[in-house]
Structure formats: structure tokens, C-alpha cells
UniProtKB/TrEMBL annotation:
Domain Cytochrome oxidase subunit II copper A binding: 97-214
Topology term for the membrane: Multi-pass membrane protein
Source organism of this protein record: Cladocopium goreaui
Name this polypeptide is given: Cytochrome c oxidase subunit 1
Assembly notes: Component of the cytochrome c oxidase (complex IV, CIV), a multisubunit enzyme composed of a catalytic core of 3 subunits and several supernumerary subunits. The complex exists as a monomer or a dimer and forms supercomplexes (SCs) in the inner mitochondrial membrane with ubiquinol-cytochrome c oxidoreductase (cytochrome b-c1 complex, complex III, CIII).
Enzyme Commission number: 7.1.1.9
Length: 815
């Protein structure tokens, strides 16, 4: 059973019970909405493609729309109350005389544990007294960091809490049985993040008292080990490590006084035995590449003498790490570039491309408001991406080039400071993403001006296509969200190059300040990428179901609500950093609230299918795939809005799955729907429908095989951003399934690119309106002339092309 659902302490039990409640609610919603979606697809599929009669149109229903607004609102309100109470219940515990206090200090990449009431300091393995039938014994942890942000995560005992430099956080754990428990650092902290493991041994009170007494004893003195002791004291070892009872009093490395009473070395990576101790002293990088322990270049005799000495300082158990396929530095560079590239240089440019082509056509104007500003934004984005990827190349004059940035796409301080990110790779990241952000700002300004000022005669805002509504709110979010990121990037660059201390925790700066600024951009950015997808789906589903969108007005209002609420949800990503209980409760409630307008959209799209004549061409398949994927991503988002649940899964593969179901399953499936839908308009040729359907099914199956199992591996305790993982946790099979899914997806994209090449060369001529659509872009030639329209059309309804085709039954009569 997953550790999260098999807790061994009261804190973890509380979180498990809340998690089960949230899962149950989300499961009911999934079955209801997913079941309706499947039923409508089966029931209303158009098996007779030659019948062009239009089904009865339903423009909306106020009672139904009010009902499915109030129902989710009431659900999330009750759930928010339960979650808020849980935050105060879990955080409101106070230590008693029976409880222990432990100071935990995170270092790159090891743990220091201090028992202040007993004067004991140890490393990497914490010993605590277990509760029994007579007494509950909680352990209250004081969490600090000596360098970058770490996170203490012990799934069977409690959720995670971050260790932030310059800040003291608190949490408590309790073990209700005598047993070893295993955890790790869950927050990305540099090269050896994957191997920053920890162990908690819960023992009886009697055993704990005996352990404390033993730890207070000074190091043993044995005559045979005297040469090794002298060699140890003569080297830099004595300046880094403490061995009580000797002159070794270093503070940079772990206290070694009772080294051999520990079961592991290297922060839990290998068993503490003589052979591994020799390897650790002789060549630390052999066990833990990139560790801070220097290579002393010791002779064989020196190593033997030092190990003889250290081996006297008693041992206990074993653990063994997996082999690695790639080096940790390379892996960290890859996931940094993956996240940065997909967000800034894949999804955002695709969104800008769709908007620049389609918005002027949809609103009946000849071009965007400021074409030259548009061009400047394009070149800034292109140059920003080029600058980022220049970090890979080696050559004179390219300061710091030769390796990509490895600080994550989120670039948490102080990991980005010169002390931890030497060279110029981070500078390339800052400058590249800053230029791209400025280019995106020009796009947002241009889009707002175009939509507000250049609509066709008669096209009031109540008649613009929903895609245009989504892009308008999207552009407004860009205007508000990108400047804080740009400001933070300039502050970081000034820190790195001019000696300022905005984020330097050693000089009074704040690591949390970066997180506030970054996520003030980062959470709206999720919706900046999602809203255009919503707009595409709102155009594709009506055309291929032959039904007008259900509840146009509520869809537009829900879009505005999403934009507004998304600006107040940024600390949803910061539940583990130690904000106040009140702030966590507020941002949790806001996170639940945003589910209401998002749910309205899903309900309205599903209702549009009802009674329609569903034509399952490739664009419609991708649109339906979007609905199912986004439904799953949205429901797992509700789970993450529950603060204690977030403490357990926020830095696990569960979050990786959620994120990709929202952005990849959401945005990319919708972008593919839009690509197949509007390709004929842009090129004048049709994409192959058969190859398109093969592409869809490969992508749909591959995606779910790739990311679906990540929910399970996350609940099993697998952290994200690790280049390797230990065996025996049940993660292997799910990673293997994910790998198969990735291969299937790769084949799917090969089919897509082949379809694209073949169709561009010899695809079927599309004509001006191959889908019998209703919006203005289909009223002009395919591809459009550079001026879009010979005569600017006049608009009287939300389906202007329908009005032109059917003057005897115009749509404006029914709106």
C-alpha cells in the first residue's frame, strides 16, 4: 500500500483521511461528467454523414446554468471549510512535556539533527521515541537551511515542509510504532537532490534514552588508531567535521563523533561498512558526484589509517542506491531546459501564432492594430530563445557558455546565486526569458488594441467569437503577469552582476521574495496557456456537433472570472514554505474558488454536445480528448488545493501528472484540434483525416500511458526532479509503463509531421469553408489575402457566416 495511505502517525493519518475525502468527491464528479461525455458521444454521433440538416439549437438555459454554478460552488465551499480547519488543526499543536524537540538543518546534500534538550548532534539519521499505549510522543521539528531551499518529507509520518535559508519553519511528526521510516528532500536543491535521503528510527522510550546517553559520550580512543587520528587532524577534515573530545571542531560537514553508530553514509546512499567508508574517503565523487567533500588525493596508507580511526567511531544497517543512466548535472540541465522551452518557446509562440492569424479574421479586420510592434515582439522572442540555447555552445567570447542552466525552469533563489550557479548559464536563462517576456508583452498590448478598436461594424463584444473573448482575457493576464517576472529577473541579474542582495539570504535578502514574484507570474501563466485552448475548443465543438455553444454569456463571464481569480492564487504553489495559517487558508479557498468558473466551461461544452450531430473528424477527436484530459487535470488540481494533501504530493510525480494533464493534455490537445481545424484556412489544403485519426489515437493512448501512472508513482512517494531513484519502492513498473507511453507519443508526432509534409505538398484542396462553419474567417478565401477581406462584413449575430448562408433564417432572430 502507498505510504501516504498507510500512515504510521496521527499527522499522516489526518492527511490521509482528508485525501480520501477529496478523492471521493472528485471521483463522483469524474464519473458524472465523464459518463455524460461518453454517453453524448455514443448517443449523438452522426453515423449518416450525408444528412446536412441542422439539429434543434439550444442557446442556453438560465435555470440549468444557475444550477450547475451553485452546485460546484457549494461543493467547493464546504470542502474549503474542511481544509481550512485541517490547516489550523495540524499547525496548531503545541509541544508538551512528553514531546521531543529536534532542530533540523538542511545542507547540500545532507541533514543535521540537533537535540537541544540533550546537547546531541547527529547527521542524516534521526532517532525519535515512538508513541505507545500509555503516551503520545510527538516530535516538534525546527527547520532551517544552511544554503539553498530544502524540504523535509517523511510520507508515513507527515507531509512536507520547506527549509528556507534565513527563515525558521516548524512541523511535527509522530510515529505510533517502533520501526525505521524513510524520507528525503523533496524540493530541488542542486546536483545531488536525488540522493539527499533521510532516515528516522522510531524506538521505544527506553531505547531512545540509551541512544541519547551513548551519543553524549566522546569519541573512543584506541591506541591502534592513533596514526589515523593524527592524519585526520592534520588534514582539512578536522576543519570541516566535529569529533567531540578532539580538536576537530568543523561546522561545514556532518558531526562524526559516533559515525559508526549510523546505518548509512553519504545521506543514506550506501551502507555504512568499511568498504564503502574507504570509497567515501578515497574518492567522494565515486559515490556522490558533485558532493562538497573534497578529494584529498590521499595515499592508500593514508586512507587505511583514517578509515581505521573512523571505523571505531560503531555501525548498524544497510541501504543501496540504483545505478544512473546519465550524470546528475546533465539531467538537471535537461529538465530545466525542458520546462523553459515548452512554456516560453513552444506553447506561447503557438498561442501567439494562432491569435495573430485568427483574431483579425474573426473580428473582420485587415490586420492587427500595430503590425510593426507585432514584428518586434516576434524578433524579441526568437532572439531570446536563441540566446538561451547559446549556453550549450562552446567558444571564445561566450562567457560561461558550454553548459545549459541547471536551476529548474522556476529558478528558485538562492540556488541561482553565484555561490551555487557559477558561470554564465543562468545569465543566459535570465536574458533569454526576459527578452521573450518583453516580446510577449508587446503581443498582449497589440491584441487588446486590435480587439477593442478594430471589430467589424455591428460586432459588439456580446457577438465576438468565444476564441476572441478568451484571447482578450489572455492578453490582459499577460499585461499583469509578465512585468513581475521581468522585474524579478532584473533583480536577480543585479544580484549576480552588481552585488545586490535582493535574494541573497546570507546578506539579508529573501528567497521567498523570488517565489512570490515568480508565482505571481507563474500561476496566471497556467491560464495564459489554457485560455486560448478554451477558445479553440469553444469554436471546434459547436461546428462539429452542429450546435451553437450552450450558454455563450456564462462562458464569457466565466472566462473573466478565471482571469480575475487567477491573479490571487499564486501562493497555491507555496503551501510548504511556511506562510502563516491564515495565508495558506486564504490561498486554498481561492484555489477552490477558481474551480467554479472552470467547471462552468466543462459543463457548457458537454451540454453543447447534447442533441447534436457529432461529426468525429480529427479536430473534434482532439477537442473531445481535451475535455477528458482537462477534466482529470482539473480534478487533481482540486486535490492540490487542499493544503495538507498538497504537503504530501506537491513535490512528487503526482504533481508532474497533474501539471501535464492540464497543460499538455489540455493546451496541446486543444492546439492540435485548432491546427487540424484551421490548417485548411491558412494553407488552402486539407490535412489527411485518416493520418490525423492515427495521430490522435497514438497521442491519446501514449499520453495516458506516460502521465497516468505518474499519479500512482507520486502517491507511492516518488519525488520529481530526481535523476535516479532507489529500488524497492514499487516505482519501477510505473516508470516503465510511462516510458512505453513516451515512445508511443513519439511515434504519434512522427505521423503528424509526415501528414503535415504530405498535405502541404499534395493535400486535398480545401475551398473557402470546408467545415461548413459559422465565423468570419471562413467567409474569405483560403488562404486569405494579405488584407483578409475585400469588403469588411457587417455583423448582426454570433454566427455571421450562417446569416450569410441562410438569410431566410438568420441567427440574430434567436439570440
Amino acid at each position: 500500500m502507498p505510504e501516504m495511505f498507510n500512515p504510521a502517525g496521527s499527522a499522516a493519518e489526518y492527511i490521509r483521511d482528508l485525501f480520501i475525502l477529496v478523492i471521493a468527491i472528485c471521483f463522483v464528479i469524474f464519473v458524472a461528467v465523464g459518463g455524460a461525455l461518453v454517453y453524448f458521444i455514443v448517443r449523438f454521433r452522426d453515423h449518416n454523414g450525408s444528412d446536412n440538416t441542422e439539429p434543434p439549437q439550444i442557446y442556453g438555459s438560465k435555470p440549468i446554468e444557475v444550477a450547475w454554478t451553485l452546485a460546484p460552488a457549494l461543493t467547493v465551499f464546504v470542502l474549503a471549510l474542511v481544509v481550512v480547519r485541517s490547516v489550523f488543526d495540524l499547525r496548531g499543536q503545541e509541544p508538551t512535556a512528553n514531546d521531543q524537540r529536534v532542530r533540523v538543518v538542511g545542507h547540500q546534500w545532507w541533514w543535521e539533527f540537533e537535540y537541544p534538550e540533550h546537547g546531541v548532534i547527529t547527521a542524516n539519521e534521526m532517532v525519535i521515541p515512538a508513541s505507545d499505549e500509555e503516551l503520545d510522543r510527538k516530535v516538534f521539528l525546527q527547520l532551517e537551511s544552511a544554503d539553498v531551499i530544502h524540504s523535509f518529507w517523511m510520507p508515513k509520518l507527515a507531509g512536507k515542509t520547506d527549509l528556507v535559508p534565513g527563515r525558521t519553519n516548524h512541523m511535527w511528526i509522530e510515529a505510533n510504532m517502533v520501526s525505521p521510516y524513510f524520507g528525503r528532500c523533496a524540493e530541488y536543491c542542486g546536483t545531488q537532490h536525488a540522493n539527499m535521503l533521510l532516515r528516522v528510527d522510531a524506538v521505544s522510550q527506553k531505547e531512545f534514552d540509551a541512544w541519547i546517553a551513548a551519543q553524549k559520550e566522546p569519541a573512543r580512543e584506541v591506541a591502534s588508531a592513533k596514526p589515523g587520528k593524527e592524519r585526520f587532524m592534520a588534514l582539512a577534515c578536522a576543519n570541516c567535521h566535529t569529533i567531540r573530545g578532539t580538536r576537530a571542531n568543523g561546522k561545514f560537514g556532518p558531526d562524526l563523533t559516533h559515525l559508526m553508530s549510523r546505518k548509512t553514509i553519504a545521506a543514506g546512499m550506501v551502507e555504512n561498512n568499511r568498504a564503502n567508508l574507504v570509497r567515501w574517503v578515497e574518492d567522494p565523487d565515486e559515490i556522490k558526484l558533485g558532493c562538497r567533500m573534497p578529494d584529498m588525493r590521499l595515499s592508500e596508507a593514508d586512507v587505511k589509517q583514517i578509515v581505521d580511526y573512523l571505523a571505531l567511531l560503531i555501525r548498524l544497517q544497510l541501504w543501496k542506491a540504483e545505478n544512473t543512466l546519465i550524470e546528475p548535472d546533465t539531467f538537471n540541465e535537461l529538465f530545466t531546459m525542458h520546462g523553459t522551452t515548452m512554456i516560453f518557446f513552444v506553447v506561447m509562440p503557438m498561442i501567439a501564432g494562432f491569435a495573430n492569424i485568427l483574431v483579425p479574421l474573426m473580428i473582420g479586420c485587415r490586420d492587427v492594430a500595430f503590425p510593426r510592434l507585432n514584428a518586434m515582439g516576434f524578433w524579441l522572442s526568437l532572439f531570446g530563445g536563441t540566446l538561451l540555447y547559446m549556453s550549450y555552445f562552446t567558444g571564445e567570447g561566450l562567457y560561461g557558455a558550454g553548459s545549459a542552466p541547471d536551476v529548474g525552469w522556476f529558478a528558485y533563489a538562492p540556488l541561482t546565486s553565484p555561490a551555487y550557479a557559477r558561470g554564465g548559464s543562468v545569465d543566459y536563462w535570465i536574458l533569454g526569458t526576459t527578452l521573450t517576456g518583453i516580446g510577449t508583452l508587446t503581443f498582449g498590448v497589440n491584441l487588446i488594441a486590435t480587439i477593442i478598436a478594430l471589430r467589424a461594424p455591428g460586432m459588439r463584444m456580446s457577438k465576438v467569437p468565444l476564441f476572441v473573448w478568451m484571447m482578450l482575457i489572455d492578453a490582459i493576464l499577460i499585461i499583469f503577469a509578465f512585468p513581475p517576472l521581468t522585474a524579478a529577473q532584473f533583480m536577480l541579474l543585479i544580484d549576480r552582476k552588481l552585488g545586490a542582495h535582493f535574494f541573497d539570504t546570507q546578506a539579508g535578502g529573501s528567497a521567498i521574495l523570488w517565489q512570490h514574484l515568480f508565482w505571481f507570474f507563474g500561476h496566471p501563466e497556467v491560464y495564459i496557456m489554457a485560455l486560448p485552448a478554451f477558445g479553440i475548443i469553444s469554436e471546434v465543438i459547436p461546428v462539429f456537433s452542429r450546435k451553437v455553444i450552450f450558454g455563450y454569456t456564462s462562458m464569457a463571464m466565466a472566462t473573466a472570472a478565471i482571469g480575475f481569480i487567477s491573479m490571487g492564487v499564486w501562493a497555491h504553489h507555496m503551501f510548504t514554505v511556511g506562510l502563516s495559517d491564515g495565508l495558506d487558508a486564504f490561498f486554498s479557498a481561492a484555489s477552490f474558488l477558481i474551480a467554479v468558473p472552470t467547471g462552468i466551461k466543462i459543463f457548457n461544452w458537454t451540454a453543447t454536445l447534447y442533441g447534436g450531430k457529432l461529426q468525429l473528424h480529427t479536430p473534434m477527436l482532439f477537442a473531445l480528448g481535451f475535455l477528458s484530459m482537462f477534466l482529470i487535470g482539473g480534478l487533481t488540481g482540486i486535490m492540490l488545493a487542499a493544503v495538507p494533501v498538497d504537503w504530501q504530493v506537491s513535490d512528487s510525480y503526482f504533481l508532474v501528472a497533474h501539471f501535464h494533464y492540464v497543460l499538455f493534455g489540455g493546451s496541446l490537445f486543444a492546439l492540435m484540434a485548432g491546427f487540424y481545424y484551421w490548417f485548411p484556412k491558412v494553407t488552402g489544403r486539407m490535412l489527411g483525416d485518416t493520418l490525423g485519426k492515427i495521430h490522435f489515437w497514438l497521442l491519446f493512448i501514449g499520453f495516458n500511458l506516460l502521465f497516468g501512472p505518474m499519479h500512482i508513482s507520486g502517491v507511492l512517494g516518488m519525488p520529481r526532479r530526481v535523476f535516479t531513484y532507489e529500488a524497492g519502492n514499487g516505482w519501477e513498473i510505473w516508470n516503465q509503463i510511462s516510458t512505453v507511453g513516451a515512445i508511443i507519443m513519439g511515434v504519434g508526432f512522427l505521423v503528424f509531421f509526415w501528414n503535415l509534409l504530405v498535405s502541404l505538398k499534395s493535400g486535398k484542396i480545401a475551398g473557402d469553408d470546408p467545415w461548413d462553419a459559422w465565423t468570419l474567417e471562413w467567409a474569405t478565401t483560403s488562404p486569405p489575402a494579405s488584407y483578409n477581406f475585400e469588403v469588411i462584413p457587417e455583423v448582426r449575430s454570433r454566427r455571421p457566416l450562417w446569416d450569410l448562408k441562410h438569410p431566410e433564417d438568420p441567427d440574430w432572430k434567436y439570440e
